[in-house]
Amino acid sequence: MRLKQVSLSAAISVVAGLTTATVGLTAPAALADSTAALPLSHYAHMVADTAHQHLFFSQGAGSTGILVTDLSGTPVTTLTDEQGATGLALSADGSTLYAALADGDAVAAVDTATLTESARYATGTGSAPVSVAVAGGKVWYGYETSDGKGAIGSVDASGTVSTPSLSHWSVPPLLAAGGGVLAAEEPLQSLSHVATFDVTSGTATAKADTDVYGGTATGLQVTGDGARVLLAAAQQPALETYRTSDLLSGNSAPYYTGGVGPASLAIDTDGTIASAGTAGLYVYAGSGLAENHIPFPAGTTVAPAGLTWGGDGTTLYAVTRDSSGAYTLDVLGSAKLTDTTLTLNPPQYAAPTEQFTFTGALATRGLLPAGAALQVTRDGEPLPDVTVGADGTFGISDTLPDAGEYTYQVSYAGDATHRAATATQKVYVARLSTGIAFPEFDSATPHSVVFRDTLSTELRLGSLREGTEVDITRTNEDTQETVQLPSVTVDPATTEFTVTDDPKAAGRFTYHLSFAGDATHEPTTSDATIQISPYAPALTLKAPATATRAAALSLTGTLGDAPYPAGETVTVTRTDAAHTTTPATWTAPVAADGTITVKDTPDIGGADTYTVSYPGDASHQAATASAIVQVSRAKSTVTVTTDKATYAYDGTATVTAHLGTTYNGRTVSLYATPAGGRKTLLKTGTVDSKGNLKATYKLTHTTTFTASFAGDYRYAPATATHSAAAQVKIAEKLGSYYTSTTYSGVTYRVYHHTVQPQVVGTVTPDKSGQCMKFQAQEYYSGAWHTIGTSSCFSMTPGSTGVTHLILTHAVNQRFRVRTEYVHSTKDTSNADTWGGWLYLTVRN
């Protein structure tokens, strides 16, 4: 058959990667998702010509035509006499469709405007081309060589067919092109032999040639920039991606297809990747981010090489086959549309007149549409749009004047890669509950009650208005009297308020606190009952220390915890010598500030005691204070004497007290205080007409006598003392004599001239350790003459002193001896005392 030759320059001169330029035609809008049955018994390849709104379907070896449909899958025509059309490729300008005719041993060129074959390029008998790609100003095809292996041929712009030696292939390779790079693949069980070539100059220059993970390829694509080659093979669980420069793995993200080898592959001009397997269709952004997953009915799968993107940047076309073998075209206008969900979170609170905010989030499987506008309505009325944040969140603020139920709807219109979404949220607007806690009292006295409290709001939300007030009443629980107090203002920043009151009384009081509420807050009330104890005022009294009898004097006092009610008085009593049991009593006024002035003219001298007593009132307890004023009295005189100055041991003294002039008191008391002993009352009585009072007292020790006058109304007390000495009692005896005799009636003890007479003295009371002396006299010339006085003898226990007389030339002489007690400075209880004389004489 004679081939028609046409120029290819117009068809391929504008090829640049996978970016398609359209001339003179406008791409249609994205189609809505739809399906259409395809009148195909077999399927090999599909090309979308969105510029002319056609789809081309080849059916592989054994077929005779290429099915042409519109973009919805409705058949338009069948291009006949296209024997075994398998691989299809569209020129860069979209004017020509190239088909590899496996049964025609040729590459056919079809005018896409007229849908007629414009040229056919013979590839050699038995070449059976199966794959075709357009790149570098040429049409490349994979074919079978005469020895049954594979090779790559090309058709240039002049229509010249050439068969360059491009690697070694055991079968006709599958071809793909993009960005000036040609890629070829053949299966090697679980591996694929892949080679890449730089064809930007029209001549293929090898870039890389190696075996990679692959298998029986069902899709081979080169990205628009020529940097990567993607391989879909049934033996792999996901798409494999390799760098075209070295065919090393370039999988920066896994293009997962459900764990079963992908059946088809398509890359859009924006880099979006579609891959299909038995688990459905997966769509990935060029970055590898999963955008969408579209499942198919059970038993339905995408045919190998059954995916292609339309030129509108949106629509994906898929050829699927069901379990009966029937083919269907799925038009997926929303394949790039990622599912989006809107979630709304109800506000923590929503109160009338108070701005509230509820939040939401827009979630998607793909890239978040940050900055997208969301439409908001309240009960159908539009509100300002809100913007999606970088993290997908947004907030909606609103303020409503009234309580009630409101329905908010938030809508996202969607975009080229996101589906629309809508969510609704009911918001219940209600006034916030409030509460007043039991207050904290700073003071609670009859004249000063101060307490602090808070007007709390539900969950501490909702700001209080400036000028918010709490009304206060006070009820006296004892009298049931209720008083309205001034309202207090609440600090909106702290919600605190302070109540200051002067109840003017003690007792049990209830403070009723009430908040009337406002547009945002519910009203509330609270009661606080407190027992206020009356003041315990301190009463101070100032009085002169002394005063003149019968002259006016003043005392001043102060009651604390003022003020005091008008008309209050204190009771004043004066206790003096004339009013011991029934004091003089009168009252004095209490000023409002608690000051008191007491006036008096005392006519009784002595220690006058003034007592001021306040009985208490509604807010004060009773208080008492006393002061003593020494009121002047005339001097009185009293003396005390004894009938002797010194008395023998146990001698009786007559004691006389004498009282001078007095007013109305003539009683005197006499006391005796022996040395080292206790003061003892001898007698109390009225003096006689001479002013004397007598008493007797036996002295065993030196004794001080006291006369005391207690004083009377006009004369002061007086006291006088007088001391009388008491001697000790001395017992004496002579020892060692052998007989007695008398001279002039006096008994003498007789001693032998060889004996030293013993003298023993004993003192009462006990004076052990004190001094005892002995004195001896001799009788001659008609008189007694002292012949010696001893020094002190320290008396032994038992208060005894002993000495011996040494007498020389004493025969027939008469002697006498006596003892003397001599008190020391430490002994003031008795005076010096001589004992009696003991007489003795000496004989041969």
Question: Could you please describe the fold and organization of this structure?
Answer:
This protein is mostly beta strands. 0% of the residues lie in helices and 53% in strands. The strands form 17 sheets. Strands 61, 62, 64, 65, 66, 68, 69 and 70 form an 8-stranded mixed beta sheet that branches. Strands 45-51-50-47-48 form a 5-stranded mixed beta sheet, with no helix packed on it. The protein is elongated, with a radius of gyration of 71 Å.
Kindly report the average pLDDT value.
Answer: 91
- Which secondary-structure class do the elements indicate? mainly beta
Note the gap between the termini: 212 Å
Number of helices: 1
Strand content: over 45%
Determine the fraction of residues in helical runs and give it as a percent range. under 10%
Largest beta-sheet details: 8 strands, mixed
Rg, rounded, reads 71 Å
Shape: elongated
The beta-strand count equals 70
Low-confidence stretches: 1-30
Outline of the structure:
The chain is mainly β and 844 residues long. The strands form 17 sheets. Strands 61, 62, 64, 65, 66, 68, 69 and 70 form an eight-stranded mixed β-sheet that branches. A five-stranded mixed β-sheet has the order 45-51-50-47-48, with no helix packed on it.
Keywords:
five-stranded mixed sheet; WD40/YVTN_repeat-like_dom_sf; 844 residues; disordered N terminus; Ig-like domain repeat protein; eight-stranded mixed sheet
Helix-strand layout with pairing:
Elements: H1 9-12, E1 34-38, E2 45-49, E3 54-58, E4 66-70, E5 75-79, E6 85-90, E7 96-101, E8 106-111, E9 116-122, E10 131-135, E11 138-144, E12 150-155, E13 161-162, E14 174-178, E15 181-188, E16 191-198, E17 205-213, E18 217-222, E19 228-233, E20 238-243, E21 255-256, E22 264-267, E23 273-277, E24 280-284, E25 290-294, E26 301-309, E27 316-321, E28 327-332, E29 340-345, E30 356-364, E31 373-378, E32 381-387, E33 393-398, E34 404-412, E35 421-429, E36 434-436, E37 440-445, E38 448-457, E39 469-476, E40 481-489, E41 496-501, E42 507-515, E43 524-532, E44 539-542, E45 546-547, E46 553-559, E47 569-576, E48 579-589, E49 595-600, E50 606-614, E51 623-631, E52 638-642, E53 646-647, E54 651-659, E55 667-674, E56 680-686, E57 692-699, E58 703-709, E59 718-726, E60 729-735, E61 739-743, E62 746-752, E63 758-764, E64 771-780, E65 783-789, E66 793-794, E67 800-804, E68 814-822, E69 833-834, E70 838-843
Parallel strand pairs: 45-51, 53-59, 62-70
Antiparallel strand pairs: 1-28, 2-3, 3-4, 4-5, 6-7, 7-8, 8-9, 10-11, 11-12, 12-13, 14-15, 15-16, 16-17, 18-19, 19-20, 20-21, 22-23, 23-24, 24-25, 26-27, 27-28, 29-30, 30-33, 31-32, 31-34, 34-35, 36-38, 37-38, 38-41, 39-40, 39-42, 42-43, 44-46, 46-49, 47-48, 47-50, 50-51, 52-54, 54-57, 55-56, ...
